[in-house]
Amino acid sequence: MSAATESLAQKWLRQNVQPYAFKDAVYAHVDAVLSQFSTIRPKTDVYTYDDGRTQLLLCLHGLLPIAYRGTSYNIPIAIWISRDYPRQPPIAYVVPTSDMLVRASKYVDVSGRCSVEYLQNWQRKSEVGLLSSL
């Protein structure tokens, strides 16, 4: 795609993947997610790791439409793209609204951090299918 045909979001994304080691892969995968899910938006923000380190990362956030037991839900999520992506999996969270409660389960802890099988088996999976597995 030429620079003249890129959307504003794609231009923003191209600029904000520059610090990433695998910027072309990050761009392609994030652009694919944004094309597939109109309710997901990119931003940059500071992420705090469990050990207290902070880093400015790309984050995909918004509402993920899911069907559960015959009912449709829009789940608020945040997917943080680490600087080692795609060598390392993204960091996924359910981000509850003020009237939501995150109940800890096999795949989600009380903070909302997700550890779905897809992420646990990251090295054997394709990168783009994460949102479909949530």
Automatic annotation (TrEMBL):
Domain of life: Eukaryota
Protein name: UEV-domain-containing protein
Organism: Irpex rosettiformis
